[in-house]
Specification:
1,2-diacylglycerol 3-beta-galactosyltransferase; globular; Glycosyltransf_28_UgtP; Rossmann fold; 6-stranded parallel β-sheet; hexosyltransferase activity; alpha/beta; 2 domains
């Protein structure tokens, strides 16, 4: 199996890695991860050709890290769509060459915009006999067909009600639509919190008996993290904060140098996010679909930044507000007040059970979904 992903944002790779871990653990699959833009299309990237950054760097550095989510973000999306439209023929040829090299029996996409190109190229490989699946990592589609092309020759998997309802309205065969209860997260996020919380915190270098606030703004961090932490300087609460800065090394250094008036633990990119969430009392972050899903799965009360929301993330914000799954803030002062309110509420603020919304069972469901895809595709007797 080949899983095609992008490093524009952290959620696509994280979902692909979760899928790889879960399926390979069954002993029935061998999964190869392929970055569409770095491994297949670098020579077709108009951003790299005409600017100092490639398409992923533009998204990660200028939109995610610097918070250019308004007109600049919309212009970026328009540029990306134009890039796809202009270079479609060459892109199809590049992906056709990828299939010849990797010889997949099954292809899965965990990224948007180019799935019609992947489908077209697969139809040239083995007479179109290789099944193709789109596994959604967003809450819903920002634009019609940006994830799910208006055609019937692929399988579609979605984990939210709003996305499933939109899919059901498309001219897509019902037997090729699969529903998960929640977005796909690694199974470790669904495990019970440590029975000995004090020991678990100590093992991570945290004080055993002081409330823990875990802050993460996706896989590439954001300067908003330090801005919000500074808002607590005047009247610091009795907390310790874990800052998960992802691949933003400059941000990590800035937080370490800030001399904040409470204990801090600053981490760069890590696959141990679940361990830090598991020992936390509150999660603070942006509207990233996967990080919100992970925090809800752990059962944490969530405090979500409503500033610099990406166009595809407004559905996450609406869901949180409508379902009362957490609090939102927009300014540093608002953040400080909301955090203190959650701290006063303590355990009463926690989301009940592991796996909200609706009980996230995606990790348990995904092996059965792919077994059914394999069966319907005639790949296994």
């Amino acid at each position: 199996m080949v899983v095609v992903y992008t490093d524009a944002g952290g959620g696509h790779r994280a979902t692909g890695e979760a899928l790889k871990d879960i399926l390979e653990a069954t002993g029935r699959y061998r999964v190869t991860m392929v970055n569409a833009y770095q491994d297949v299309l670098p020579h077709l990237d108009l951003f790299a050709r005409h600017t100092s950054r490639d398409v992923e760097q533009t998204y990660n550095e200028l939109i995610l890290q610097q918070g250019r989510t308004g007109a600049f973000c919309l212009a970026f999306y328009l540029g990306a769509l134009i890039n796809v439209a202009m270079l479609g023929g060459w892109a199809r040829a590049a992906f056709s060459a990828l299939w010849e090299r990797t010889e997949p029996d099954l292809v899965v996409s965990v990224l948007p915009m180019i799935n019609h190109l992947l489908l077209d190229s697969l139809n040239r490989y083995r007479g179109g006999a290789t099944p193709f699946t789109v596994l959604m990592t967003d809450w819903t589609e920002m634009l019609p067909s940006v994830w799910f092309p208006r055609r019937q020759d692929y399988f579609a998997i979605a984990g939210t009600d709003v996305c499933q309802q939109r899919l059901a309205r498309k001219p897509h065969p019902e037997d090729k639509l699969f529903r998960m209860d929640g977005l796909l997260t690694r199974p470790v996020f669904l495990e019970p919190v440590p029975a000995d919380m004090a020991a678990a915190r100590t093992a991570l270098g945290l004080a055993p008996d002081r409330p823990v606030v875990c802050m993460m703004y996706g896989g590439y961090g954001s300067a908003r993290m330090l801005e919000m932490a500074e808002a607590l300087r005047g009247d610091p609460p009795d907390i310790q904060m874990v800052f998960l800065c992802g691949r933003n090394e400059a941000l990590a250094r800035s937080i370490e140098d800030a001399a904040l008036p409470f204990p801090t633990l600053v981490k760069g990119y890590t696959r141990e996010v679940h361990r830090y969430m598991a020992v936390s009392d509150i999660f603070v972050g942006k509207t990233g679909p996967l990080s919100v899903s992970e925090a809800l799965a752990v059962g944490l009360p969530i405090l979500i930044d409503r500033q610099n929301v990406l166009p595809q993330e407004h559905a996450v914000l609406r869901w949180i507000t409508r379902n009362g799954a957490g609090a939102v803030f927009s300014t540093p002062k608002h953040f400080a007040a909301s955090l203190r309110s959650l701290l006063v509420r303590g355990a009463a603020a926690r989301n009940p059970g592991a796996g909200k919304p609706g009980g996230n069972r995606a990790a348990a469901q995904i092996p059965g979904i792919f077994e059914e895809i394999v069966r319907r595709s005639g790949l296994r007797p």
